[in-house]
C-alpha cells in the first residue's frame, strides 16, 4: 500500500515504530484516569500526566521524519490526522476529569463517580480503538469510509455508556432511598452490628472511603432520611448533635439514635418522611440481606481503588 511517493522497507519500519510509541504514550496517559478524583493530589496528577502527554504528542507532530518517509501529498497527510486524533483523545480525557471535578465540587458525587468509573474504562479500551479503526481505514477505503466507521462506533459506544450510567444511577438511588428509610424507622435493636444496617449506610454515604463522614456527607444522609425536614431544622439538628465536623463509624450509631430522638420530639406526626407510614413500612421490609449485599456492590462500583 503506497501512501506517498517514497516507500522503502526502512521507512515503513520507522513509521511503525513512531506509531507504536505514540500509542504507548497515549495509553499510558489514559491510565491516569484510574487515579481517585476525590483526592486532590491525585486529581492534580491526572491533569499533569495528560497535559504532559499532550505536549509530547504536539512535539512529535512537528517531526519531519514520518513526513519524509511518507512523501508529500496535496491534502492533509494521514500522519497529521493520526497525531491530531491522539491529541484530541487526550483533550477529551482532560475535559472528562474537569467535568468530574466540577460535579464533585457541586455535591454530585454519585453521578461524578459513575461517569468516571465508566469512562476510565470506555475511553482507553473502547473509544480510543474505535477511532483507530476509522483512521486505519482512511488510506485503504478513503476518508469518508474511515470517518463513517469511526463515528458509528463512537456513537454506539457512547449510547451504551449513557444507558449504563442511567441504569446504575437509578438502581443506586432506589437502594439508597430504601436503606435510609429503613434506618429512619427501624427498631433500635436492628441498628446494632458491625455488618448490619449501620455499616451499610455508613459505607453508602462515605463517598471517598476515608472512614469518616464529613459534614457534606452527613447532610446528604439527613436529607435522604427526612427529605421534608425544613432547612432551619436541619441546621438546628446539625449544630445540636455536632454533626458539622467529621463523623467516625464508632460514633455513627449514637448520632443516628440522637437524630431519631430529635425527630420524634419535633415531628410526632412523621411529616418529615418521604412517604406515608404504611408505604415506609413496606419499603423497610423490602431491605433484606440480599438488598444490603446488592447495595454494597453498587457502592464499590462508585469508588476507585
Characteristic key phrases:
single chain; 305 residues; mainly alpha; Methane Monooxygenase Hydroxylase, Chain G, domain 1; Recoverin, domain 1; 2 domains; two-stranded antiparallel sheet; 12 helices; 2 strands; disordered N terminus
Description:
The structure is a single chain. α2 (40-61) runs antiparallel to α4 (78-105) and α7 (197-205) runs parallel beside α12 (289-301). With 305 residues, the chain is an all-alpha fold. Residues 1-8 and 276-296 have low confidence and may be disordered. It has helices at 9-30, 40-61, 65-70, 78-105, 109-141, 143-185, 197-205, 215-225, 231-240, 249-266, 277-286, 289-301; strands at residues 212-213, 247-248. It has 2 domains: 9-106, Methane Monooxygenase Hydroxylase, Chain G, domain 1; 175-301, Recoverin, domain 1, CATH 1.10.238. The chain contains 12 helices and 2 strands. The longest helix is centred in the middle third of the chain and has 43 residues, at 143-185. The protein has a two-stranded antiparallel ribbon.
